[in-house]
């Protein structure tokens, strides 16, 4: 297996982008990525999108994207694992390069969600749940995560304030991210007084509905070292794991086993322990999700995610910074793009190019991207030397 | 890159399977495959489905399928490239094994299309076209292929009878395939008198709407040789290519450039020429498609596909047999499953297990799976020693 590095990252301003179609989003992020890499060679493309079919009536992005990127004939694959589709795109590009099948592989994540007709974004998102045993009966994702939040509060004493503090921290970071959909700070009181969505989760506990894309360019490490424009960031660990799709079918609804397995696989491949990781971008689709993920990854013990957040353990200047980008909460959550954007942020941090939100001296970063209520998870461990 | 072999194949009876949900289809084909392989180890799963979201309201098959297969925690990826999604699943499983990331990789293709509400199967299928410049304006796939058929008849003198002969040949083969949706013969007259769909294409020029799944198990060739149950069939060539998604944006609407490029890439990797191939399973979504594909692959010169078909060149006992399985036309076309089923048939032929439709002495077979009107294509070259 060849060593693989990331040689280019491409973000764009996320938000309600009614003037840009899904093809425009992909092309803008991809061109930003190729500009950043300083080269224009693409041997293969992996596109992560959760449901371009339902959201925009456009499947077959594997044909559309190379076409509109001016790369006709280029091999392309669209991958999907609900909200983990972006992480899966990076992993698929990794397989292209690691195997030797392709040298320069572009991973793009995209979702166009804000001008959906018919059942709308909530219907589309619910297709990530078990259609026959969850979605059909009316449960939505805020409802599923609300059940997990209530159970966590009941078992561990996690407080409403601790949930709010996840949003406060992530918005504080996101306020310094020019690509974020909501680049402003919020107070604990604002979160706790925002409109109720699914008790105990309020509007500011939820990541937003977003249009956006992100892209990264991968190459063999040996090639990356010759380019010289940026310090190559090596993908030293890749982990992918799944779990029961329906929350009701798991032995313990507060244990995200897919996250635990994917993290362990990625760290084992990297030859690292969680203590060796300097920071992480994680999947805070709801405030409770960040707490559950911290615990499942072993950053803190089960039940300790809430207090750790309120104590500043995961702040940018804390012991284990989480979501320096602002996370899904502040940056936005175009579902298929999120996993790729996490890698963009991690590379920017490892290069020392993260500006006002830079984590000092970070050498090893981890990205954790999750599908549904935890039915799938993709983790990457990245290192700069 | 490691050499990769196919060690198990799993088909099932295709048709209007209203009593089976999409999860049932995946599990049935996968268990048939593991039974055939004689082992129960799966390190990674790649699932090809074009639009489970639109057709069944169920995305996130990457979580659902390992869950219902009794393989929780197994890494999984759903891939999509419209009707080439199945071929892409096999290619993705190939990358898993070739890279060394996984040893035993299961590729499953699936589509559940016959009990769709709302816009129905025609709406779902049209998402493989350019939504903004084709589908939005009302064009359907029968319409696109009808334009190609008219242009081919005009430029090369291809006749209505020659188109019908593609269906006659494929139904003759399909009549011997117990898994086929329509295992019966048809006459040239029946095809030419069937109801008009999009002039000149009639009902029997079109592949049907189908529920079904197929699966193959891949492993390193070195491992496969130790198993001993079947002669290992090696994947000696893999080719993936794309083209403009919209028919109107191609320099020549009768040249399927994605097919030409994918075939060349696969043959180059295999160190073979098309003359070295003993037979092929190709993407006859419409009768004209098989003719265009034969020409794009270089089996015959441009314009000669029609006469070659009527002359028996592509019959099971012809010089270059095409679609011994009955093709999409007779076997059915659950879009995401088709590319995997093509590989199942090719392996069965190379093992000498194809029964009444066996091609004598076949050692090298090729599969060609296409998305949309030719916007993407995946080709595999398989060999038995």
Number of strands of chain A: 11
Main sheet: strands, sense, barrel of chain A? 9 strands, mixed
The low-confidence parts of chain A are: none
CATH superfamily of the largest domain in chain A: Thiolase/Chalcone synthase
Order of strands, main sheet of chain A, comes to 3-2-4-7-1-8-11-10-9
Q: What is the beta-strand fraction of chain A?
A: 15-25%
The CATH topology of the largest domain in chain A, please?
Peroxisomal Thiolase, Chain A, domain 1
Mean pLDDT of chain A: 97
- The percent of residues in helical segments of chain A reads 25-40%
- Straight-line distance between termini of chain A: 20 Å
How many helices of chain A in DSSP terms? 14
The shape of chain A is: globular
Radius of gyration of chain A, taken over Cα atoms and rounded to an integer in Å: 19 Å
Second-tier CATH architecture of the largest domain in chain A: 3-Layer(aba) Sandwich
Category from helices, strands and their pairing of chain A: alpha/beta
Largest interface: A-B, 68 and 67 residues
Counting copies of identical and different chains, the oligomeric state is homodimer
Count of the separate structural domains of chain A:
2
Q: Briefly, what CATH class of the largest domain in chain A?
A: Alpha Beta
